[in-house]
Write a structure and sequence with these properties.
This protein has 445 residues and is of the alpha/beta class. The protein has 21 helices and eight strands. α5 packs parallel to α6 and α11 packs across α12. Bound molecules: adenosine-5'-diphosphate and magnesium ion.
Length: 445
């Protein structure tokens, strides 16, 4: 019957609103004129109660027989009630901070599952602090770093922790892309008031991968207003991006400066110890999934040495290894590892080439690739060229004469001069140093 009611509701409220608000609901029962509806989160139930109660009541009344009242239950309550009679332990938390507006939170992305090492300890500490809502909080908290270094993991962990500590808090986690999608939808359907109201009703707003809205002018504008309103009301904001605010191109200056006025912390590329730690922790999880599987000593160390790109790749490699070994009924040893992960290992062996460096740098500074090797001496061309020389020296094992040859047959002393120049500038010019770090990260990705 709920199925039929849903169909009617969809006709009444329209497909999009239905998908956003009604779809996640479940009718759990009707008794004495009260229909009980289960909702994944409190945020969602509040919203639905305010905006759709009449529609739902009418439809249910028609289909189910007399219904005069709605009783919304969040999954937290449902779970607690279900668990209560048996044992007096806390029910497992529902997927926190989540409703159809938000992206789902990954159950595995908790603080407990986050392995802390030198490269991420600052970001982790800041995330903890914000999640605990201590006396000194950072607002906004801006987390940035390369692909697969744990930004999304930390954001989910924060959302979950806040929701656990303050079940009443409305934590809204979503990607910048979803933010834009909702915004555009609201424009199209002329529901901007609802959109604004909805965002402004949250207590914690978390937007992942904010670089996505760079260049999207009206979305940026709306984001900026939402952001300001929430900050002014003392609401916590957490943002992530693949680069620092200053490095995001096509992002308005006023947004950059607002993003910078809280705490900006980065997740550095992993080092060997962190990778090994993560491998050990993931292995413990896999052992439960594949009981009885053996791993020969040295395998994890080998992986930590050889797979340096990012944590996601590392995880994928381990996953494949376990699946393969369990299929073959064999122990995981070095031979198997090399055979089974040949492609991943090869990809990680790949070193950056001078050509790639020239291309990326030219792209970044909007100059022609040909000017990298050409003779032009104007600063706007010569400086990027020197940066490319510097990165070539740093990131490849080529000698100065070899680098010179690839920069249009320049002399090795020219290359040396270029490298020195950038080294000097780097320590004096903060924004140049940031540029170079960014380029390096892009090249390493
Ligand atoms: P990002 O959002 O920065 O691209 P994710 O947060 O999605 O990266 O992380 C990619 C994968 O690596 C996820 O499965 C995540 O759990 C895992 N991961 C990243 N860093 C860590 C860490 N320090 N400890 C445990 N797992 C991690
Ligand atoms: Mg992410």
């Amino acid at each position: 019957l709920w199925g039929q009611a849903r169909e009617e509701l969809q006709k009444i409220v329209g497909a999009d609103s239905f998908a956003t608000w009604i779809e996640p609901l479940r009718l759990t029962g009707v008794s004495e004129g009260t229909a009980t509806i289960a909702c994944p989160t409190r945020f969602l139930s509040d919203w639905v109660a305010r905006h759709y109660s009449n529609d739902i009541l009418q439809v249910l009344d028609r289909i189910e027989g007399p219904v005069q009242r709605l009783n919304f239950e969040t999954r937290a309550q449902t779970a607690r009630q279900a668990a209560a009679p048996a044992k007096r332990v806390a029910a497992p938390r529902p997927v926190a901070a989540n409703d159809d507006l938000a992206a789902p939170l990954d159950q595995r992305f908790t603080f407990e599952n986050f392995v802390v090492g030198k490269p991420n300890e600052l970001a982790h500490a800041a995330a903890r602090r914000v999640a605990e809502g201590g006396p000194v909080t950072f607002n906004p908290l801006f987390l940035y770093g390369g692909v697969g270094l744990g930004k999304t993991h930390l954001m989910h962990a924060i959302a979950r922790e806040i929701q656990t500590r303050q079940p009443e808090a409305r934590v809204l986690y979503l990607s910048a892309e979803q933010f834009m999608y909702r915004f555009v939808q609201a424009l199209r359907e002329r529901t901007m008031m609802d959109f604004k109201e909805m965002f402004r009703a949250v207590s914690v707003l978390m937007v992942d991968d904010v670089q996505f809205i760079a260049g999207k002018d009206s979305t940026q504008e709306e984001f900026f207003h939402t952001f300001n309103t929430l900050v002014d009301q003392g609401k916590q904001i957490v943002i992530s991006a693949d680069r620092s605010p200053g490095e995001i191109k096509d992002l308005e200056e006023r947004i950059k400066s607002r993003l910078q006025c809280g705490l900006v912390v980065d997740l550095h590329p992993t080092d060997y110890e962190l990778r090994l730690g993560i491998l050990q922790s993931k292995t413990d999880n896999f052992r439960q999934q594949y009981p009885g599987l053996k791993i020969a000593p040295g395998v994890l160390e080998f992986l930590a040495h050889r797979i340096t790109s990012n944590v996601r790749v590392l995880e994928g490699a381990l996953q494949r290894l376990f699946a393969f070994a369990s299929l073959m009924g064999r122990e995981i040893n070095l031979d198997m590892t090399q055979e089974c992960l040949a492609d991943i290992l090869r990809a990680n062996d790949r070193k950056v080439s001078i050509e790639e460096i020239q291309r990326k740098v030219a792209e970044h500074y909007n100059i022609r690739l040909a000017d990298m090797i050409g003779p032009k001496r104007v600063r706007t061309v010569a400086r990027p060229r020197q940066i490319a020389m510097y990165l070539s020296k740093q990131m490849t094992s080529r000698s100065l004469p070899e680098i010179g040859r690839r920069f249009g047959g320049r002399d090795h002393t020219t290359i040396m001069h270029g490298v020195k120049k950038i080294e000097e500038l780097r320590s004096a010019d903060h924004s140049l140093a940031e540029d170079i770090d960014l380029l390096r990260r892009l090249l390493e990705a």
